[in-house]
Amino acid sequence: PSFQVIREIVSCTATSIAARLSTFAAMGWPRGWQVDPAALDGALQLLRVWGIARGGRPSLPTAIGRCRAWAPWPEAGEVGCTMQCRQDNPFK
After folding, report:
1. What residues have CB less than 8 Å from 73, skipping those under 6 apart?
2. pTM as predicted
């Protein structure tokens, strides 16, 4: 429960997944981060969900190529997260 940051999956397609994620402050985690650790962990969780939805199993190993924020990280509440996904090896 301490790491369940996915609040709602908005869409899941063959090439992307989007969701609303809780922020570190909403989770009660300490302040002082340059990047919201709850959002970053939520992004990894989304990639795992995408792998299960697309191939029936988690997409491991996983890499994040780039993380961009279009606004300052909010101190509380939620953030939107959209992941553009690519399958390097066919699911077997």
Report:
1. 23, 33, 35, 36, 39, 79
2. 0.82
